[in-house]
Amino acid sequence: MSVKPKYWVLLLLILLGGIDPSNAASTPLDPKVLHIINRLSFGPRPGDVQRVESMGVERYIQEQLSPESIPESQGLTSQLQQLDTLHLNPVELLEYGKTNLPGQKPTQSERKAANKWAEQVLDEAVQARLLQATSSKRQLQEVMVDFWYNHFNVDAAKGRDRLWVGAYEQQAIRPYALGRFRDLLGATAHHPAMQFYLDNFQNRADSRPDAQVNVRGLNENYARELMELHTLGVDGGYTQQDVIALARILSGWGFSRPSQQTDNNFGFDFNPKRHDFSEKVFLGHTIKGGGEAQGEEALDILARSPATARHISYQIAQYFVSDRPPTTLVNNLTQRYLATDGNIREVLNTLLHSREFWDAKNFNAKFKTPYQYAISAVRATGMEVNNTRPISNLLQQLAMPLYRCQTPDGYKNTADVWLNSDAMNRRLSFAAALANGNFPLSTIPTKIEQRQRTPGQEAIGTEQRPLQKSPSIPVDAGQLTNTLGNSLSMKTQKAIASSDSQIRSALILGSPEFMRR
Fold first, then answer.
1. Interior CA angle at 192 toward 117 and 451, to 5°?
2. What is the pTM of this model?
3. pLDDT of 215-237, one tens digit each?
């Protein structure tokens, strides 16, 4: 993918220039308005800046902190209702994908049908996420879904998780994104997608620790990541003995098979035949002998740990304020976490009223991830999104495909990961296509056309029909500038003003300022 010569000046601006607040253009817009929109949402849509100016920053904050009070548009609700697989639980998703009888090896046609089902399930999960990110009025909810999914990452490329990542987000992430951390932790720990991804469904105590030195069958993978990534942090003070103890505590945790009947709609299953019922010492706490309740007690200990409070507070501060968040802010958030028993909404409320959050040096200080950039660009144009496939393909090109991060630590949100020349080249090409009306978001694809492509594959089978292109309608540069609150620096404004009028919208979407939030 190449950038036309007329964009070379802009490319140099992005690669060599920075965002200097002193270069900001004089404008009647209160910079706090744009700052709060950029951090509590994926960027303004047409009219958002004026709306927040009218209602006031504080009211906007409180509104977004209570997403249940914000009615969604009928259009978005209707789009989500058309995604047939979105609200199926893991057991149903696994069962519906099987066409062969139990005990029989699937035929080639049955395997093909199962793959087609899996493609539909994953494609509809991607559609749901992108539709809500671009169009939902509950923007802070969407921002926190992005944050928490990466915190509790599950990779769709691993076996059954191709079927389960959408259900995982719907059932274990979304309902708890602004609630209590302990509830979020428990939901992810119980979900089959996490149990499968980090191999805890294989974790079994075949012998007792008091009978042999080595406990056969233990799988420490989830126990280790649960402490290192999800709760305490790598410097959280745990030892290898704590990892082993937690693995024993979580032995027997897994998921039910389609033939099993469980009371849990998510498909979680506790198998006592695989569990180590002995007493354990975990992080200095004695956990009495027992079954599934041992795991719940361990999650309680982890969620209430000061190390967890600090780890979560640091990550939230890094996501919302700066790549290297101030220690004072992290300390204040940690104290708020502990005082409210891990209430995420209260921690965010403290952050959004902190001196550090409103420090002008942190305005536009965060470089957008490919996901944030793509969503913010689409929102800025005000285009109606009916076809999410172009966005999904773009994210693949930008090395951030949805639900495809292979490592359990999820995608990073710091500039050092995403700021490079090849990525900027691709962003500029996308900006040009979007600005010129050559990004087919409004075209409604058929069910067949919605199927997920594998990398490099344009069609599946002979049923594929090409999308009918809508007339190209360029994005109006004046309207785009107004949507973004006239936030470009004088340096960028001069470069745009001296350019051909036909490329001004592309220059705005590819500007140094728009690359940041």
1. 20
2. 0.89
3. 458 999 999 999 999 999 999 99
